[in-house]
Task: structure prediction
Amino acid sequence: MTSSNSLDRKSQAWSALFSEPMSELVQRYTASVFFDQRLWRADIQGSLAHAEMLQAQGIISAQDGADIQRGLTQITQDIESGQFAWKLELEDVHLNIEARLTQLVGDAGKRLHTGRSRNDQVATDVRLWLRDEIDAIRELLKNLQRALVDVASQHTHTVMPGFTHLQVAQPISFAHHLLAYVEMLSRDDERMGEIRNRTNRLPLGSAALAGTTYPLDRERVARSLGMVNAQGEPQVCQNSLDGVSDRDFAIEFTAAAALCMVHISRLSEELIVWMSQNFGFIQIADRFTTGSSIMPQKKNPDVPELARGKTGRVVGHLMGLITLMKGQPLAYNKDNQEDKEPLFDTVDTLKDTLRIFAEMVGGQVNAATGVKEGGIQVNAQAMEDAVKKGFATATDLADYLVKKGLPFRDAHETVAHAVKAAASHRCDLSELPLNVLQGFHASIEKDVYEVLSLQGSLNARNTLGGTAPAQVQAQIARHAKRLA
Ligand code: ARG
Result:
């Protein structure tokens, strides 16, 4: 008998053995359908490939194959149009779809699960779903890189202070600074590509844990799901126990996502600092900021702040997932159902963050004019004033003296005295008169002013990877080609 807060076992897929109903609380605690229904497309894709193979191997009839296909097509339409009735008592996405299939096509629906278990089914679904999400993320990573390169290309001669310890160190171009983030994001993209390859392997055919007694053709299924390597060869999990229980791909994806968020968090921190009144280096478009409910003058950089905050959340998901696996014996354990929410949230958070940053940095094409607008606005004068405040060309003066024959350590010492003098005169090194500079070392001549100029300082760092405009322009060209 079914009481009001319990469930009739007969509606479940594994009813016969049980003598008492499941309480509503246990049902709610164990069910995953309200979050894993998001895997429905991958689930149907996997089922179609499995059924096609069962038929090709003569395990089910052509009629059953056709019925399954028809039923799953109907279910696809129902889910897409919001008509599908998801049921908590059917536990998860897999049992919901299978039960509906059987309702639609009868016994053929019951034959779909031949040689398959939910254990290899769910592992396959998550991999298929994540593979496509990785592809989308890689596109978004490229878009953000394009936006950064776009802004950089306008600022190869815009000088700002380069910092170490957040103290003014040496002049760099704004373009050079932005391209550092392009490097980070290009590694993120590369990492995602490697992880995609290990994600794109087929567990299906592992069955519950030990393989199956039916003559499955796993490589055929892998091929039809596009689980192939660069040479087009099928990629199939080679050990059934590992196949059903491996979640490495989810962990390494989340690790890569966390690292990518850390990169964006670092950029966020810089944007926040740069737009504070004390720096005033940049502005971001108003639509990425919010006002204060009490201080009328405020424009707060909420978007970069939130990205910095959400980084903690994704790092947390990595901790959650890696801890989930710790201590699990082989093979599948229900613990693994807990892999989905952190993984889904990681994907959603990363995608939204990448999207919003591409727009905030690079702007958006105005549909009416076709012109890109709303990206980062640079205050080049404020950047230049900040470099001058920090004696950023002190190293250039030391290098100048070395070229005149001084040992570097002596040159360093000499320049320290010059900096002290400039500080007491409240001026930049380049503003000290020649006779004052010559007081520090007789070898100093008029050509020192070119060395002490900001553009001169940039131009002088003309080694591969340096901030000289020629180097930065070469990097921009390399990235533009890579991202074309
Ligand atoms: N909903 C389950 C999950 O997400 C599907 C696999 C269930 N397998 C089982 N043996 N109970 O992991």
About this structure: Strands lie at 6-7, 22-23, 159-164, 167-173, 282-283, 364-365, 372-373, 377-378. Confidence is low (pLDDT under 50) at residues 1-5.
